């Protein structure tokens, strides 16, 4: 049985070289990162074995997975092979599934290169690929033995990718505590753009975020219920992402705003707390509600299309779905929410007053 924990390290990839003996290791990365990935390893001359996959979400396809299996076969990958995934969440999701299924499971090491993958995708053992247009429908749990975070990777990340990752980090702060949330408010107060934050601040931000996710994973490694709190902002967020084409974190930020509105309707969340979260999101350039997200993407907001996608949510059971309801900072609970309640948040958005807010 595979362990459901990972050792997390901070530092240069080359410092952890002994975890990846060249004769056992196969490295998988994306086209844009290949050059930089090999420069960070002291092994090029020793003839490291590399698998290169397309960039971003496009690598999470069945055809790409098949090409990974062919490469593993060519490289004589055996049960003691270590698959080292260097990249963002897309590469680690693909590699995780390949590692889980190759010879019924080989060791996986993840070297995350985006903020989102450092705080979220690399942590928790989930992996997946997409089928047709449906994201993450084929997947499994396969925990990496090691996660190696070299914060310096973030310096080449686009501002949008960085801010998108920041949304998930803010989500973790809301789940965690007042103190964690204030940590972000203090960063926001400096008015330093995310791309100019120093490595030390990033390292602290990442460590704090990982701790929150790890706490949920420890309580519920295989995502049966407690861990669903990590979906805060995602029920609306996934639908917003599909309709706007915005980066995941931007859509989740707007989804958090919508979840907060639902919680205020339920008298679970104080309006003042909703305003405080919205203000923090906006200070990082993130949308804080659904109309802001559609305005940012320059798309017309059609509430019925949004509701249709929410009705198709994987977590739906009949007329209800499990929903992460914020009661306050540090207090997000999983509760059954009816589709009518979700409609109460979305339907009024077609009102001319709310449409005016987009301009
Ligand atoms: N398994 C999980 O628990 C989990 C959790 C959250 C998200 N995810 C998945 O993660 C994926 C998104 O991952 P992501 O946000 O890390 O993005 P990504 O992996 O899709 O990468 C986004 C882009 O950034 C580029 N990139 C990566 N690192 C870079 C760097 N250091 N410098 C410059 N460019 C770089 C990539 O080549 C790509 O073009 C989605 O498929 C999502 O479903 C998985």
Structure write-up:
The structure is a single chain. The chain has helices at 34-39, 62-74, 89-101, 115-121, 159-176, 178-189, 199-219, 234-244, 248-265, 271-283, 290-297, 303-311, 339-346, 352-357, and strands spanning 7-10, 25-30, 49-53, 82-87, 107-112, 126-131, 134-141, 146-149, 316-317, 320-328, 331-338. Strand 2 (25-30), helix 1 and strand 3 form a beta-alpha-beta unit. The longest helix has 21 residues, at 199-219. By secondary structure, it is of the alpha/beta class. Strands 1-8-5-4-2-3 form a 6-stranded parallel β-sheet. A 3-stranded antiparallel β-sheet has the order 9-10-11. It is built from 14 helices and 11 strands. The protein folds into 2 domains: 7-155, Rossmann fold, CATH 3.40.50.1970; 162-357, Up-down Bundle (Dehydroquinate synthase-like, alpha domain). 45% of the residues lie in helices and 18% in strands. Mean pLDDT is 93; it is low at 351-359. The chain binds nicotinamide-adenine-dinucleotide. Residues 30, 32-33, 55-57, 60, 87-91, 93, 113-114, 116-117, 120-121, 124, 126-127, 135-136, 153, 156-157, 161 line the site of nicotinamide-adenine-dinucleotide.
